[in-house]
Description:
Blueprint: H1 3-20, H2 27-45, H3 49-63, H4 73-93, H5 97-116, H6 121-141, H7 147-161, H8 166-169, H9 173-183, H10 188-193, H11 195-211, H12 217-236, H13 240-260, H14 265-291, H15 302-322
Amino acid sequence: TSLVGSEMCIRDSLQLELEQQTQQDYSFDIDRADTGQRIAAVASKLGQNEKAIEHLEKARKLLTPHLDDKQDQTRVYDLMTQILLDYGTALSKVGKTKESIAVFQDGIKLSEKRMNAGKDPGKALAGKIQLVSNLDIAQRSIDDLGIDESRKTLWLSIDQFFQLPEQEQTPHQVDISRVVLNKVALSEDEQAAHQDRRMDCMKLLEDSTAAANGDSLSELRTKAEDSTALATAYATLDDKKKSYEVGMSAADQWYELATQTPNVIAFKRDFIWSTYNAFLMWQEYEFASKNADNDAAIPLTADQIKKMYQRSAEMFRPIENEGVE
């Protein structure tokens, strides 16, 4: 069964679950909001962002009256944080950037409220970092004047997270490392100022990627995303050889995903992008090696280049036919 087919089955099952929820007790609204969030997550993966927004708006309205309740407070806060993160992201995808910024800001306030209450500091701070990083991306896309403030808040929150006791950090370290390496576009000054933190995050992500077996499509996708983030991080550190090697591993992983799920255009695009960046790193490393008059070149045979070209052509044709930019 294809990934798309599986996710459509999940979406339909969740929709049925939502329609069958009729018990009017305390948890009724929370359960419906939970189901709505999960339906939205599947819809978003299928590219149905308007449908995701519809479910997330309903889920948010259902959950809002329960934010100050003492019962099930941890579950309510966890769910609302995820709803606001997904809602803001979906709004961004349909071009409603200003609306998404407002949603992310609401999510940040909620995370800060949770932190001030001393509830699950690691989880609360991890949620805040995810929200602030998405806020930063949205603001940059429209040159919002709040960019500097959100970037300052982001790095302060990241530093604060890594000062928490180890047991509070551990469940969220890899997710925060992904934010640091993959979501934060750095200036040269920021790269220098936060290099030690980035190196620590690279080590965490390297260990996580090495341990991941990629047996399921979900695990393989996570492994591909992490490899892509690492390749980009190595490039910013000017380690072109390592960036090429990890980038080619990412390309292989995206290719496997794309061939197993032929209806998912995004995987084809990610394969082409990873291959292009890896090949660019190879060219730059070869040029630098020749200028330095050393023999530390990366071996790349004619057959390997042919394979890269053939795979890229194979992946590009469906994208071109779909009219995807």
